[in-house]
């Protein structure tokens, strides 16, 4: 008798689930339609855009070709000049002495380290602060006495090292802070003010971005 009474309840639960799925699909279709109608592609962003790319976030095609992953060629269109003397560039890992490091991390692919729309740390395109330790953990584990006790996430967040810079140390930063106390194991990055020349991002065109100009 109890089994017969439970059947209507199961049927009602199944109908409620189907109704919820249908309503969710309708809501998503309405959401996408509204985004296209209002030409507002920012609703498709999976997360916060980095400071340096904020002004191009309204033009997805500046970095993306359809929904394909961003390639090195895309990054180099804007950053080729500043990476001309890249300390960790292709020429370094082309040297057999360092080829083994590529087995630890695919360092020749920009997106291995940099993840746009995934907020991690406010300097450059989002980068995991402790990424240096993939190859250089020994530096803070006894290989270099001056770095004993330093935290894994302090190499570049403290302003000392720059992965791509041809200089090992940011001498300008150190010179500016010579009168400060010695660097502590837990570093604190000073606040900064970012000023932009443009007050508003360029107008977006979703038809151009997602439909290849076909409307």
Outline:
The protein is mainly alpha-helical. The protein is built from seven helices and no strands.
Structure description:
With 215 residues, the chain is an all-alpha fold. It has helices at 2-37, 72-79, 90-93, 110-113, 133-136, 171-176, 206-211. It is built from seven helices and no strands. The chain is extended, with a radius of gyration of 25 Å.
- State the shape: extended
Number of helices: 7
Structural class: mainly alpha
Question: How confident overall, as mean pLDDT?
Answer: 75
Q: Mind sketching the topology for me?
A:
Elements: H1 2-37, H2 72-79, H3 90-93, H4 110-113, H5 133-136, H6 171-176, H7 206-211
Q: What attributes characterize this protein structure?
A:
215 residues; mainly alpha; extended; 3 domains; single chain; 7 helices; 32% helix
């Amino acid at each position: 008798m109890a089994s017969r009474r439970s059947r209507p309840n199961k049927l009602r639960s199944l109908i409620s689930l189907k109704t919820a799925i249908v309503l969710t699909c309708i809501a998503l279709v309405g959401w996408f339609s509204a985004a296209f109608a209002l030409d507002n592609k920012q609703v498709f962003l999976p997360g916060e855009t980095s400071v340096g790319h904020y002004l191009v976030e309204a033009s997805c095609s500046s970095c993306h070709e359809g929904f394909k992953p961003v390639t090195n060629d895309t990054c180099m269109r804007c950053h080729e000049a500043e990476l001309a003397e890249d300390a960790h560039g292709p020429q370094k890992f082309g040297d057999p002495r360092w080829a083994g490091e590529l087995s630890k991390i695919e360092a020749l692919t920009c997106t291995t380290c940099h993840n746009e729309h995934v907020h991690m740390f406010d300097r450059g395109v989002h980068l995991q602060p402790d990424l240096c330790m993939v190859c250089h953990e020994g530096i803070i584990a006894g290989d270099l006495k001056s770095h004993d006790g330093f935290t894994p996430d302090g190499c570049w967040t403290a302003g000392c090292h720059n992965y791509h810079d041809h200089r090992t140390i940011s001498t300008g930063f150190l010179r500016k802070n010579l009168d400060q106390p010695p660097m502590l194991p837990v570093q604190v990055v000073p606040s900064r003010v970012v000023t932009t020349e443009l007050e508003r991002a360029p107008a977006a065109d979703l038809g151009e971005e997602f439909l290849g100009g076909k409307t």
